[in-house]
Amino acid sequence: MALSQPRADYDRTLMAWLANFDAHWHEIADRYNERTRRMFRYYLSVCAGAFRARDLQLWQVVYSHRRDGRYDAPR
């Protein structure tokens, strides 16, 4: 099992998602209400702020077969 932690600037990814969401809202607005839009914007913003404040972490766990005394991710 290998553990990795992303760089501390993961908030930039969340802010890019938010910008993309805002830029394309008009494409999905007829399926969702304004409350849903506000909640999703709030969620992305709060998560970005928590990463920026280093109050939140994201971990990725990768499980792989053991090969010759080491762990390799499948290619």
From TrEMBL:
Species the sequence originates in: Halomonas elongata (strain ATCC 33173 / DSM 2581 / NBRC 15536 / NCIMB 2198 / 1H9)
Keywords of the record: Lipid metabolism, Methyltransferase, S-adenosyl-L-methionine, Transferase
A GO MF term: methyltransferase activity
Principal EC category: transferase
Keyword Transmembrane helix: no
PANTHER family named in the record: CYCLOPROPANE-FATTY-ACYL-PHOSPHOLIPID SYNTHASE
Enzyme Commission code: 2.1.1.-
Family: Belongs to the CFA/CMAS family.
SUPFAM superfamilies: S-adenosyl-L-methionine-dependent methyltransferases (SSF53335)
Protein name per Swiss-Prot or TrEMBL: Class I SAM-dependent methyltransferase
Pfam families on file: CMAS
Single biological process term from Gene Ontology: methylation
